[in-house]
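re: ur question from yesterday

yeah so i grabbed the chain u mentioned. its 285 aa long if i counted rite. heres the sequnce exactly as i have it in my notes:
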Amino acid sequence: MEKNLSTIKSIMPSLTKTERKIAEYILKEPYTVSRMLITELAKATGCAKSAVIRCCNSLGFSGFTELKLFLAEEQAKNRELNFTPYIYPQDNEGDILNKIFSANTKTLHDTAEKIDRTVLKKAIDTISSAERIYIYGVGTSSSVVNDFCYRLMLSGKNAVCFCDIASMKISTMNIKEGDVAICISHSGNTQATVDVLRLSKERGAKTVSITGNQSSLIYKESDLSLLIFSDEINYPIEAISARIAYFSVIDAISIAVSARDMNGAYLREKTAHELISGIRYKEKK
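ran it thru and got these structure tokens back, copy pasting raw so excuse formatting
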């Protein structure tokens, strides 16, 4: 799997305390590190050169030189995409707009380039053949969960979704072999989502996860795991740019499912349009 700054962040929980200190510095100052000597990074982090090398190895690099090349490539790519992620208090509204759009563009680019296409196809096959589809997520994932459920229903699938913790767990009482449970969590470690994933597996359902953290529990424990690539490290709010990638991935899955029955998809779209067009609201007097 190709690496980016987000994948480095996701590996951090598995690092030692010293390695984590070095990795945090790399994530905070990636482009400064790309121009450093190993002795300079060791001094900046207060660690030994050998610790820097061990950290590079733990992050999946053969050594400090490969890490620097990776950071330089990321810098070049970000410059090409006009990616300027840092938000400062003095930024005006236009600056923030430009930076958010640049971050979204890079997230879409990275996810489309690096998502595992083989796993994506298997996930679409699994969803297409499922008797019933259960979709789970809480908090910021709720909007993605609800939209995914709506689109799968439009695709003719028997889909239900749950974003309330109690309902999530109770719903697993009805899951059986032949069903699929889709768990969505950016951190991948939300306890309620992890719980329903495990309960679903116990009852024989296939499990699919969509997450931004490859070190997370739902990524590791799902039958099929799709990874969103986003550089959230420079923003004060979680999953700002990631959301657009989640919606794009679920759109791709939903349309791929519909494409397997184009005539049926056309008829359902026509029927849905007629149903929605038939809704009338009384004017308030």
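noticed a couple things. The first strand starts at residue 133 and ends at 136. also The radius of gyration is 22 Å.
anyway ttyl
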